[in-house]
Amino acid sequence: MIKVTILYPRTGGTFFNLDYYIDNHMALVRNTLKPFGLQAAEVDAGFDEKTSPFFAIGHLLFNSLAEYETGFSAKGHELLADIPNYTDIEPVVQVSESRKTV
Question: Quick one: which of 19, 28, 29, 92 has the most CB atoms within 10 Å?
């Protein structure tokens, strides 16, 4: 399983519209990448702006790296074009192999 983690660091002078991110952007992600193998999507929202280092963290699960790469190569421009609608933060992306230990 491949996990794509998108982190939005809480930095000075930035904005982040969590409602738009969850309700609109993640729906766009789901509809755009599901045909390419997206298995699941989740959002972790930071509780407290004083203690949480991130506004939000998005997680996308794919069965393989090829599925993610094919989908993002074909449709990534659509997803990236939506970012200014909810933030001016440049996201940090981590692509990982997810290994369950429990």
Answer: 29
